[in-house]
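Protein 1 of 2
SEQ + STRUCT:
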Amino acid sequence: MREIILTSIKDDLILNQLNACLEGTLTENWGERVLEFDNEIGKGTIRNMGFDWGVSLLDCNVIFHQNIKLIFRTSNVSPIEFIFISKGSFKYSEDDNEEYLDLEQYQNIIISPKRYAKKTFVFPKGRDLKVNFIRILRKDYLKKKNNNVTYLNELLLSVFNDEDGNLPYTHGGSFSLKIEDQVKALDNVHDNGMIRSLSMEGRIYLILSLQLLEHHDFETNKSLPDALSRADIKKIHSLSEYILDNISGQLSVERLSRESGLSPKKLQLGFKVLYSKTVNEYVRQLKLEISRDYLKNTDLSVSEIVYAIGIRSRSYFSKIFSDAYGILPTDYRKQLKSAAKVSIDR
């Protein structure tokens, strides 16, 4: 097993030290630093972006060709880390001992090791890994106006107020596809400059709020029902991809039940818990979002769009579009064209 030892909690120094071990290439644009590597150690991308009040993102999309043990050996108080794994799994130990905690796909995880602990992650070889670390330096964050940490439950409030790092904390929470959807949206921010920075920051705070909400639900016994297993969650996530790929087809509850292997009752429960919607509500919203993109980015007629998203009639499509967005699809397209013309004339 290859060991990588890091001696800093600062994002820029962490990336420099990782680069020295992974022998990759570091680039920087608009305050975002990206480490890319492709060699006998592994292949992938690690990116970092820092924001005000001690909040930062460390995003990893990697596959290692050998087992990697990543050890943080520092005398400073470690940040509170909100971790979400979109792909793969790995192990965590607060002090590099034999008691490792398995961290799994779609699981909401919060860690805050005690000061002087050797925070350790073990990444297995040959496994695709996509993981987000939202890191908060508590001393900096507590200086933020309206930080509202007093609204956190007593347990998490004590973690934020523990400026000396005396209270170790680990939360291996429930599984959430709501958070996964927002992580995907974060990866799809393709703007540049100031717009990119603001979009990224907004998405990060949204992900953070969902992670805090999951923690609250978990601590108040509102977590994932026993009727839904981890395997069920993965099936529902795969089903959401199937729905997107077959949006023009027949997507009844019965059809999706057969496709997923889950009973209609369990399917409805899963969508309600993970997306706060019934199956039909989820499918309808997705159809509307896709139709809005078609209206904005293509020259397809409304009738062609109705066919492409599998809606039974144009009048029904106009009704649900108007109910959702407060405007008819034809008027929405006219509004877009008018706005584009004004922009060109300027």
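Protein 2 of 2
SEQ + STRUCT:
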Amino acid sequence: MSVADIPSESAPAAPRPGLAPPFDPELAAALAALGGGAGGPITPENLAARQERDVASRPRPTLRELRADGRFEVAELRVPRAPDGPDVTLVSARPAGIPRPLPLLYYLHGGGMIMGNAWSVVPQLLREWALPLELAVISVEYRLAPRTRHPGPLEDCYAGFVWAAEHAAELGIDADRIVLGGKSAGGGLAAALALLTRDRGGPAPIGQLLLCPMLDDRGTSFSSHQMAGLDTWDRTSNATAWQALLGDRYGAADLSPYAAPARATDLSGLPPAYLDVGSAETFRDEDVAYAQALWQAGGQAELHVWPGAFHGFDTLAPRSALARDAREARLRWLRRILAR
């Protein structure tokens, strides 16, 4: 089944050619220098090869490297996955030499549910958030699609989250100050985890940091059509990833909101959210709609739409003015949430 096969009464008219918002000039130059960034869309036919390439090329720092000559305390933890199966691996890290319990950022990496690993994101988490905020971080090595389909990856994240909250004292974390966070696919998982722990009566996070989150499997938004073939993660790659995660449930009318949070009809009782997204990326409209739905449910959400930004702009152009602004806005929000 392709995206075009999924019926939707709310599917938008296809945008007219030439009406895509332009990339920020600084970001456009960075993208051109990288030869377009991601090397073309991911399809079912090239998925296995792209996954192999990602494993070979994505950094996976060792624990010794992550400890940075003693600046950080870092450990790999293996916790039981409910109800059975192999353990979930968590990478736990915090600034060294702080004896008191620290707030925790429980973080889920990106990669479209089909790529990425828990180790590669930790250096940035430590540099940008753990040090300035005196924050502990846990990064989750959840199973990837299509080898593991929904709900496997989410259940991995939930098992690790519950375990971390229950073992807060031995981990040196403050169980009353846990923020869920993630980027892209990880942002979607963080949103789903907030829904799941609310409905199961699990640990209560104080915030959800959703960076360009992947929320909607249906591919019917205006921006998903508008940025087709232009964004670094376009509707072709997105459809491939959702198909890998959902299998024959892809596009189902009754798909669970724990699989695709944009399907949720009840967003009440969720922790305050931070959402950001680019104006020139595939996920723009689904992320804006999710923020609006949180407001309509009586919740709190801070939304940033970065003008002319493509998906992953702050990774591909980290020194750009827009990337600096985005990092500063996220840091300010985290500081406010943790101070409550």
